[in-house]
Amino acid sequence: MSFPQHRPRRLRSTPALRRLTAEYRVSPSDLILPAFIREGLTEPSPILSMPGVFQHSTESLKRAAAVAVERGVGGIMLFGIPSHRDATGSAGIDPEGVLNRAIADVRSEVGDSLVVMSDVCLDEFTDHGHCGVLAEDGSVDNDTTLALYARMAVEQANAGAHVLGPSGMMDGQVAVIRQALDDAGHQDTVVLAYAAKYASAFYGPFREAVDSQLKGDRRTYQMDAANRREALLEVELDIEEGADMVMVKPAMSYLDILADVAAVSRVPVAAYQVSGEYAMIEAAAANGWIDRRRAIEESVLSIKRAGAQMILTYWAPELALWLGDNSN
Ligand code: PBG
Question: Residue 106: enclosing H or E segment and its boundaries?
Fold first, then answer.
């Protein structure tokens, strides 16, 4: 009986061989840390459903950004939690609003050594918690919302954001934002479009993180989990409208979508490992049911392997530390 000449196990026999022959590798510069700042806090406040993640004060946010720089993390994505909310989310546009001030503070802390990104969406700022303004009948009004996104984007660029992340899934949002930025002289501000963002149960802990006021769901504007082909249409439209980069979100339950998008996109592709993905692994690890570090590393590697060049993950700073450690 003859044995096959190819014995794939040969390349698995030592850690050094496995490292040498690895097809994919995550590096700290691939990672983007999503971070929350809450107006009025003097100390960071823990988010119970996301152990290890905090609503930041100005000072603690600046420290977190400095740590990200030290560890070689690629970027930071900022979300703001205002003290006052209204029907149109005006605190999101106010140049003195919590998010716009945080962008300026973080930029003054890190300069150009970390890519500073911000969320262009009204949900944290509206008293009803939807990503846009409501029409008389209670539905989310696409085109009225677009005008507010345009103003919000310009204020965020004025505050110093390098990259804007429109996450509201309004049709035409990228075109309107691009035009407004160009008209305001912000030709070099980058747009990272949340192109294929699904209505997902995995955003659950994020709603606690931002004290969301939402009742109901976002199914009239975020994508349906049943749809795959439609993600390519969303990506194509966003690229035509001027998106510099596109995102798939969530990541782990949507790796097929991510692979599809990565296969066709002419612009860089990001994926967002969302709050629920974080919470599941943390909860299992806290119970001793899973090896925390290995599960985190494997989950992020799977997102890279599926085609993401950039990965938003709440584990970015810790993962960046581990990545410098070749002991395993
Ligand atoms: C909307 C937004 C959400 C997330 C990022 N941007 C919430 C939503 O769409 O309901 C979720 C991120 C996460 O769950 O980690 N501004």
Answer: helix 98-110
Catalytic residue among 62, 215, 249, 304: 249
Is it the case that residue 320 has pLDDT exceeding 80? yes
The contacts of residue 197 (CB under 8 Å, 6+ apart) are 167, 169, 222, 223, 247, 248, 249
Mean pLDDT, to the nearest integer, of 223-240?
Answer: 98
Q: Is 198 helix (H, G, I), strand (E, B) or coil?
A: strand
Q: Please give the Cα distance from 298 to 281 (Å, whole number).
A: 11
Tokens of 228: 């795959």
Tokens of 240: 């035509």
Residue 222 Cα: closest atom of ligand 1: 9
Measured distance CA(308)–CA(190) in Å, rounded: 18
Residue carrying structure tokens 């993390």: 73
Q: How far is CA 64 from the centre of its chain?
A: 16
User: Roughly how many angstroms between the first and final C-alpha of the chain, as a whole number?
Assistant: 37
Q: Whose CA is nearest to atom 16 of ligand 1?
A: 121
Cβ of 123 closer than 6 Å to ligand 1, yes or no, is yes
Helix, strand or coil for residue 229? helix
Instruction: Please report the pLDDT score of residue 242 as a whole number.
Output: 98
Out of 123, 249, 281, 312, mutate this one to test ligand 1's pocket (max ligand atoms within 8 Å of CB): namely: 123
- β-pairing, 31-38 vs 54-56, is parallel
Cα(214) to centroid of ligand 1, in Å? 12
Write out the two tokens for 146.
């677009």
Which residue's structure tokens are 């696409």? 142
Class of the CATH-defined domain 25-322: alpha beta
Phi first, then psi: give them for residue 270, nearest 5 degrees.
Answer: -115, 160
CA-nearest residue, atom 2 of ligand 1: 167
197 is catalytic: yes
Asked if 131 contacts 167 with a C-beta cutoff of 8 angstroms, the reply is: yes
Read off the pLDDT of each residue in 171-179 and give the average, rounded to a whole number. 98
Whole-angstrom Cα distance, residue 229 to residue 218?
Answer: 20
Predicted pLDDT of residue 328? 47
